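Teaching note: in complex prediction, the entire set of molecules is handled at once rather than each chain in isolation. The prompt given to students was simply: 'Predict the structure of this complex.' The entities are:
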Amino acid sequence: MSATGTSSGHPIATLDTSIVPRLPASSPTLFEAKKIKNLSFETIAKALGREEVAVAALFYGQAKASPEDIKNLAQVLELDESLLESQLSGYPDRGRQMEMPPKEPLVYRLFEIIQNYGYAYKAVLNEKFGDGIMSAISFSTKIEKETDEKGDWAVITLRGKWLPFSRF
Amino acid sequence: MSATGTSSGHPIATLDTSIVPRLPASSPTLFEAKKIKNLSFETIAKALGREEVAVAALFYGQAKASPEDIKNLAQVLELDESLLESQLSGYPDRGRQMEMPPKEPLVYRLFEIIQNYGYAYKAVLNEKFGDGIMSAISFSTKIEKETDEKGDWAVITLRGKWLPFSRF
Amino acid sequence: MSATGTSSGHPIATLDTSIVPRLPASSPTLFEAKKIKNLSFETIAKALGREEVAVAALFYGQAKASPEDIKNLAQVLELDESLLESQLSGYPDRGRQMEMPPKEPLVYRLFEIIQNYGYAYKAVLNEKFGDGIMSAISFSTKIEKETDEKGDWAVITLRGKWLPFSRF
Amino acid sequence: MSATGTSSGHPIATLDTSIVPRLPASSPTLFEAKKIKNLSFETIAKALGREEVAVAALFYGQAKASPEDIKNLAQVLELDESLLESQLSGYPDRGRQMEMPPKEPLVYRLFEIIQNYGYAYKAVLNEKFGDGIMSAISFSTKIEKETDEKGDWAVITLRGKWLPFSRF
Amino acid sequence: MSATGTSSGHPIATLDTSIVPRLPASSPTLFEAKKIKNLSFETIAKALGREEVAVAALFYGQAKASPEDIKNLAQVLELDESLLESQLSGYPDRGRQMEMPPKEPLVYRLFEIIQNYGYAYKAVLNEKFGDGIMSAISFSTKIEKETDEKGDWAVITLRGKWLPFSRF
Amino acid sequence: MSATGTSSGHPIATLDTSIVPRLPASSPTLFEAKKIKNLSFETIAKALGREEVAVAALFYGQAKASPEDIKNLAQVLELDESLLESQLSGYPDRGRQMEMPPKEPLVYRLFEIIQNYGYAYKAVLNEKFGDGIMSAISFSTKIEKETDEKGDWAVITLRGKWLPFSRF
Amino acid sequence: MSATGTSSGHPIATLDTSIVPRLPASSPTLFEAKKIKNLSFETIAKALGREEVAVAALFYGQAKASPEDIKNLAQVLELDESLLESQLSGYPDRGRQMEMPPKEPLVYRLFEIIQNYGYAYKAVLNEKFGDGIMSAISFSTKIEKETDEKGDWAVITLRGKWLPFSRF
Amino acid sequence: MSATGTSSGHPIATLDTSIVPRLPASSPTLFEAKKIKNLSFETIAKALGREEVAVAALFYGQAKASPEDIKNLAQVLELDESLLESQLSGYPDRGRQMEMPPKEPLVYRLFEIIQNYGYAYKAVLNEKFGDGIMSAISFSTKIEKETDEKGDWAVITLRGKWLPFSRF
Amino acid sequence: MSATGTSSGHPIATLDTSIVPRLPASSPTLFEAKKIKNLSFETIAKALGREEVAVAALFYGQAKASPEDIKNLAQVLELDESLLESQLSGYPDRGRQMEMPPKEPLVYRLFEIIQNYGYAYKAVLNEKFGDGIMSAISFSTKIEKETDEKGDWAVITLRGKWLPFSRF
Amino acid sequence: MSATGTSSGHPIATLDTSIVPRLPASSPTLFEAKKIKNLSFETIAKALGREEVAVAALFYGQAKASPEDIKNLAQVLELDESLLESQLSGYPDRGRQMEMPPKEPLVYRLFEIIQNYGYAYKAVLNEKFGDGIMSAISFSTKIEKETDEKGDWAVITLRGKWLPFSRF
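The expected output is the structure of the full assembly:
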């Protein structure tokens, strides 16, 4: 049985209806069930055995659900499994939900980090790994919370496979 | 005495002259000295007691040098300290070196992570921290290298102070 | 009991329906009730114990309502509290209601101030506070009216926490 | 005789040479003299009897110098008055120094305030003043610093004449 | 009693339904009544005691109707006054109906005049009035028709208050 | 012999060097001579028998000089006629000096008038003239100054040939 | 009685429903009737005594129908004349149906011709006609088909009145 | 021996130096020689046995010169053949000289024709030729002048090979 | 009788409903039938005797169906032939379904290849074929899968007719 | 000893100087030597043991040279090896040489293929490989020429590693 609400005490995240036209049909289905059952991504992620960010991405149509994910989602959200199967069967059409540059202040800060440190990341990565890129596909990410006397700190980790440019 | 070259065996990062018009006067000064002395950011970062990404950002005009940084840079790069003082005295005019969306494949992958996972990050951060943002100012970042049987992995950590929206 | 109309004698602000698709579901709910009851933001702000701009931002989906705000809004606007709770439970997805550069003449003037004086603000702020930014999150703002023999003057105050760039 | 440096102890603001192509000829003249003499905008503003932001705007070519300003600038910066007269004689061609949306984090925060609160400002201003705009021309602005136990706060005041739309 | 049709013999202007989503609710109401009653802006303008361009702007949601305008509009268009009051009570959210650069050939020609002669206007206005702007708010405009042996000429007059930049 | 300075007492308009790369070679030639001789466009326009705006447009490379204009310009500006002939012999490559939307506040106000009143102008012009456009080529424009108790007013007149769409 | 289908044997052109939101109400009316009756623009153009391109433009809301056109369209398309009169009574709001640069390969090729040969056209037109433009209003255009041993050739003719810039 | 000036009596077209940075090295070479020798494109085109528009395109770097063209250009322009060979040896990098949408009024009119009639051209071409495009590569174009009692008319002919989409 | 599912074992591709407004009416018809019958593009392509990419393009409204294609599609998808005939009768309005630059990671990689190697392709093609282009119309493309010890490789072949620029 | 010219008989590709500001310092060095020695990419590619497209990309700063490449380039181009080492030592800053959408007709055709077939490629790749992308990094490409009775055909092959999205 799943806990309701978040462990942090903050309200759960819900869907702003004004972005629904940019999302797949599964997004309102999933978010409405999440809201009715008052479940956090932490709770749902545990039920799926996945990272919270991956699950939130799945809700926004940015990650693919496996058959087990669908089964688990149907159970934890008390949704009809065949409806979920139908709505989640496709391959995600990623990236369209977000306008770039992002107007949302939280997302803008992440964008700004890339804008400001992009070349610095490249220079250091090149020196450590050679000519190539960090994959955004063979990739995982997670969010952690740290607290010290100055307050709370968000720690985002990006971990991607290094792909050297092929010589041809 | 500083080591030359990188510890990874890959060549050091140098400056593409075609972006010089978008950089402050200090950037070509610093990068030329780095090239002549064949120093990695790892070596320079140790000399300054700072993170590699911070030092690379400083070279690209995206971070401010403290008076000690200037002294140390002058020493490790064998540059005239008063020249560096003059070129690094201002406040960085950040962000202008990068076109967005980035065309550089490595930087684009980072941008794409924000584009694809932006709302997922927001949803999870909101559930963990409430309504606010992760600061990109009261912020640090670092790059680590992990290697397993599948190859090399780049791990980028973003750590920022959580700032709740003020109620007014 | 709340006063109707504005204290200035000017009509109250209502919602242009053509921007509704860019706003959360709560915006038409709130603005319709405001129109029916003919309440100014001044009156509603008093009922909530908040600044007028904060309340107008809340109506446009740009600020988060606390549980007390929801209770007070339900009362002053004579709206069903559970409807408001449901529509205002999420975290604001800020910034999407406004096209930039703004076409609206009033908002454009504010944009133009930033466009014209942006570097001047930066230079003076840097000299007063060092390298950093004025937070737009740990932030409040208000509007006051002054009148002299030349006519009316709008006075907008922006007050934000100074955040120095972290050294790392 | 003018004081050198800033009263805050932070270094003075100087000019990033990479934006010089977007500025009038007077900007490098003024900024170089300011740097050589190590003068803050506060000091120069006192010498001119103007607001710091106005003086910084003048340095960036965003405000017009009066004949007295030119005389005072020549004196405080130890510059040739006829050179300044020649370089400052024109009418400012405002706004071109800034890319919008701004990439500079400090200026972006100000832009974001307009982006997020633009309609809220409009609604409250309309209710207080009727149909019109706050002038950005018949306008003044200033920056103040406040300090409390939470740290430093930047306070920016925008004061503009209210202009009602003409009926015709 | 109002005349039907235009005095020029050309058909009256009606509303292209494809821009309705960018207009306030009042626009289709007004334009439909105008079409049914076959009234020109000249006729309606006389009934309101306003300029034709102002009335057309009001129909497109770009100008505010006074209470008398609403009364007169209800009468001349045979519309329910309370409906008009409700739809025209807000403050215009100006500028959003037009994409810039305009694709419409007639409007593009006006845009092109600004594009080509913008700096010339500025230079001549500066020499005649000093440093400032011509207000677009404290402003009126009208269209006149002249005919000579070469054909018809449209004469558009723009009249705006001169606003000098404040010294601060 | 030409008068120096403007009749209004305001300084003459000069050229901001930062837009020179967007202008033809004739522009700096003409503006420098104008500055040295301290001539207003009013004075030069009289010498050429043309409108001030036309002459300013010619200085900005937006209008063609006739052989007589070149002769007169050489005389009034004390420039070498063959140099002017060479620099002014081509056909103007119009429109490139201005970024649109204009950032300059004065020019933006004119742009905003088109943005806000564009459809209103179209509707009224269509009712007065039928389906067509007001030419921006077979076109003249002028600026006048009016003064009343409220202050100064700028009056800009646009006069263009009406061109009906051909039926084919 | 009108012939059905095209004389070339190719299917008739119909309307892609996804651009309907960018077209006036008359466009789906006209195109549906054209499809039901299986009429080519050639056939309809003959019935109206106009060029095929003009008629296709009329169907896309880019040209004005005369009263006779409306009568003829009603007859050839077997549509209710009063419906057509109502839908075609306005003045075309031209240009909005097309995104520029065009994504459609056929239209892009025309755009590319202007992009590549624009300055060449200007130079040759200037040498032949002086300083001015070729009108796109006092203008006609047609398409012809030529066939030789290499295959089919499309020949598009643009014919516009030459308008010299007015001297003022 | 070539005639000087144009047959129309209008001055020859020359190069606006402000677009030189967007053109290949051959463009200023060719245009300067053209100016010195006062040759029209008509005269040069005759010497090359090519269309005027093709020659103007070659001057702007938009068409390739054959070895015979280079020989003929060297002769008619009295230029060093080996210089021309060197500067004209590459493959044109087409399209970069023109900003789109074009700001130049003459070129804009051509762009506007595509914008307004693009879909009409497509519909008529599809009905005449089937599914395909008119080639802009296997393509020629020319300009003719017609004069009637109404004035001068520019006639531009575009002739391109019809390419049907391959079935695969 | 057609096989269901893909031969690779991966699920079939379906349609993300959020792009339906950018597609012709035929796309949802075709994709829904494909989903109900669980058919891969491989299976459908065999039934039509066409390449998989061509069939997928047809489903997205980017390729024209021949009468035989329509017959075969109706059969394999068990759809009403006359409905398909009606929905597929028009000429494709290509390119509008895709935003450029593409946000979808898979499509972005293809875009990036053009961005990075565009000039390299041009240089090599020019050396092999002369001045011209590779046609995207007289063109075919296919996807193949190769597997080696490093994993799977996607091989995309683009084959287009070489079109030399016409000399004129 | 290397052959001069191309095997096709077409001239070799050279560098348009107007894009030099967007390229690294190595590009003009390499292209000038190539021009002087009249070498095709085919010849140079053989000397380096690499694909022609890879070598052309290296010339445009889009691919990294290995130490052996530098040695071979110095030899085949008769360039100073230490100069090449210095200019080619950095990591390529890819993508900046190309404006997107490309204006160059040849490159545009490739872009258009992605624009038109992007979703079709995605659908077919997903069905063949599952959820993932074709790498543009672990990637090679080549150009071949085929000739049949219809003319020449360019065949471009793109071959990339398939990367499945990580599950996390």
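Point out the following to students. Chain E has two domains: 17-88, 105-164. Residues 4 and 38 of chain E are 5 Å apart (CA to CA).
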